[in-house]
Amino acid sequence: GSSPARSWIWPAMPYRSEPAQTADGEMRRSPTSALIRWCAALALVGTLLLAVPAVAAQRSVSDVVLVERGTVVDDDLYAAGNRIVVEGRVTGDLVVAAYEDVTITGAVEGDVIGLAGSVVVTGSVGESLRVASPSLRVDGEVGGDVVALAWDASLLAQVGGGAVVWSWSNEVGG
User: Fold this and answer.
1) Per DSSP, what are the bridge partners of residue 49?
2) What is the distance between the alpha carbons of residues 162 and 80, in angstroms, rounded to a whole number?
3) Does the pLDDT at position 22 exceed 60?
4) How many whole angstroms separate alpha carbon 29 and alpha carbon 23?
5) Residue 57 CA, distance from chain mean position
6) DSSP state for residue 21 in the 8-state scheme
7) Which of 1, 53, 103, 114 has its CA 20 to 30 A from that of 47?
8) Rounded CA separation 73/37 (Å)
9) What are the pLDDT digits (tens) for 97-128?
10) pLDDT score for 66
11) How far, in whole angstroms, is CA 169 from its chain's centroid?
12) For the residues 49-70, what does the mean pLDDT come to?
C-alpha cells in the first residue's frame, strides 16, 4: 500500500499516524514533554542572556570588566567575565554574566539583567534590576522593579517600582 507523504523540510517533524489519546478522548502528554519544554525555555533564556544581540552595543568579555570612575559607556553594555565592576556610568542597559561577582557603585541608567556568583549594588539603577545570584545586596537606588532569585538577599534600597525576591534568607527595608 501507499503511505502518506512525509516532510523533510526543516524542522523535520516525526510522522505520527494517530495522536495519543486517553479513554475519554483527551490528548495524553508524555511525562517527559513538560521537562523538554522546561529545558527548551531555560536554554532560550540562557541564550538570550549570553548572546551579543546588538551591533551598536558595547561588548566586553574579560577576566575583569571594569567601567572606571569618570568613564561613560554611552550605550547598552553586554559584559561577561569573572568580575564585572561598574564605577562609572552606563547610559543604556547592563546585561552581565559573571562567574564571581557584579559590583555596581556607579550608575546604570537603564535595566540591569544578570547572572553572577554575587551581586552588589551600592550605586544606582535607573530602571529595573533583574538578577539571579547566590548572594544579592542592594543598598543603592533602583528606579524600577527588582526581580531577583538569590540564596541570601539584602534589599535595603529605595525601589521606585515593585520588588519580587525569591530567597532562602532575606533582609528587606528602604
Assistant:
1) none
2) 28
3) no
4) 13
5) 17
6) B
7) 103
8) 38
9) 999 999 999 999 999 999 999 999 999 999 99
10) 87
11) 21
12) 66
Determine the Cα–Cα distance for residues 96 and 50; give it in Å rounded to an integer: 8
- The residue written with cell numbers 513538560 in the block is 34
Beta bridge partners of 136: 119, 153
Alpha-helical regions (H) of 60-154: none
Is the omega angle on the peptide bond into residue 11 within 30 degrees of 0, that is, cis?
yes
The grid coordinates listed for 174 are 528602604
Residues near 40 by beta carbon (within 8 Å), at least 6 away in sequence: none
79-115 as b/e: b if 16+ CB within 10 A: bbbebbbbbbbbebbbbbbbeebbbbbbbbebbbbbb
Instruction: Give CA–CA dist 126/112, Å, rounded.
Output: 9
The set of cell numbers assigned to 4 is 502518506
Checking DSSP bridges between strand 112-121 and strand 94-104, what pairing results, if any? parallel
Instruction: Provide the whole-model pTM.
Output: 0.66
